[in-house]
Amino acid sequence: MAAGKRWGGALALAWGLLFGLAGYAGTQLPDLTARGSQPGLTHPLENSGNCMGCHAGGTIEFHYPATSWKGSMMANAGRDPVFWAALDVANADGESIGVPGIGDWCLRCHVPEGWFAGRVSKTGDGGRVDGSNGCLLQGKHDDVPGFGNDYSGVGCHYCHRAEPNGPNGEPNYLESGDLWLDDVACANGGSGPCRGGPYDYDSEGTNPPPHPWKHSPHLSSSEMCGSCHNVTSPLNNGVPLRTLITPAGVDTGIAFPIERTYTEWLKSDYGTALFADGVESAPVQNQPGVVVKQQQTCQDCHMEIARSEDPEEQFLGCFFGPNRNGSLSVHNFSGANTWVPKILKGEFPALGYDEAFDQAILWSTALLTERTATLVTRGVRSGGGQTLEVEVEVTNLSGHKLPTGYSEGRRMWIELEVRDAGGALVYRNGSWDPASGELQRDAQTRVYEIKQGIWDAESGTCRITDAQGRASFHFALNNCVAKDNRIPPLGFTGGDDVEVAPVGATYAPVAPGSNRLRNVDVAQYSIPVAGTSGALTVTARLHFQASSKEYIEFLRNQAVERGFEGENQMCEGGPGRPFSVGPQGLTRGAYLYGLWSNPAYGKSPPVQMRSASAVVP
Predict the structure, then answer these.
(1) Which of 125, 130, 170, 412 has the most CB atoms lying inside 10 A of its own CB?
(2) pLDDT per residue over 567-578, tens digit each?
């Protein structure tokens, strides 16, 4: 009885006896994913392997959608070991407050094929199964997209069948994967629902693809991305599991905003009509040296434009239609994560995705180092030359807060270094130790991050540490924000919005009386330099890190201290078990900690985004 083994003590026995793998018949369980399309689709989601015959090229032909998609975190959302370790904590946290099955809410976005097929919580016939820990999913971590594999992340059909509204005009909620899928027969060719795309073959007068299709402006909109890139505390039968409590201790009644990347964009200049209509030029180029269209949407930054050395290559004409070289988006979906793709390449060689993972790392590195921020360093001696006063100015070039997205362990910081005329080190602040994975920090260190926590009514504070003083990351239970000094995007109007306003930091308006905030932070340092002579060289470096040591240790400690089982033991009797890949006999938290500790993966090494130096006479 795999379900019962996940829980401890009498509660485990009770739930296990009531709810075996066969289902939860006759019980009233929370429904945490009630909005948007549900399991039981008339036309099930097809796996992405069905699309690769036409939409994949060779291993290095990354202008093909499927070839570039393979290395992305979208394609590997169901393989990410950080996700699986966090899922166990979320499930345990839900059980601790009497809300079992929170994994249903998480897996909806990470394994949509398995979720819509009824292998997570809800089945297509209205029944319930106990797969919120992922143990009922088909396939395994190193299976390529194909029949019977749920681990292939966010696939082609999930996006290309997405609709802006439900079948009866229901709204698209733009959060937590609450999206609508086209589930009716398509009027244009073939059988099954339409595959939406950016081209209107009828108006072009060109040959359509050999599958059902329709022109879908929604697919090219930021609203499409907002469906998953706003994440909100789940609704328990319509009631928020956690509501936002302000730093003043006021319960707003608003479902806690866990991630708000889409809202951050919407409240920036990039999300306003000023730029959205294409009349005005947005201030940042779409891609280095190439202006394809004015930068407006998520896709403009996170999807390259197809460029082929052979303009006659068949794919760029979709076999039948016009040449698409220069007008088709590469499906790289580059973000800031350069660490997990390296792990996936090393741990799952059977995928055969080595080149795709390498390219994904290159794309993400280029995004971070070339298009995300600028850095300026200034310095002057004061106090009779005894003190060096330094300013480091960081400008956010992205269309959302910097950094954005997943709050747990993700951060950006400034490393500052001062050397004398002979090159000897005078001062260093914000250095990261590759041997220990620790960030050296003090009161002057500027770390850009959001710290979410649990409101402590007794002390009147947002608690972000446990009883032992260790950093705490309870994604599903958080209800307050202790710190959010992340740099706003250009023209940010969310300074008065409790869901996205800075906390513990102040950003000036672009002009007196304006509600648009500057996308610039100035970090100030006062450094004792008594005894030095000659010129001093001040160097600032801006770093981004996907997962901090504190977060990885938290996930490991949770697995140990709460008695989580090894994955194969927890999933005993599930499809394909026991696995010979992934955690196997280890807990997911222990497995992740082992990967983090492995010298091959470097303890989530930070990416140096920018550097800037100044010589102070």
Answers:
(1) 130
(2) 999 999 999 999
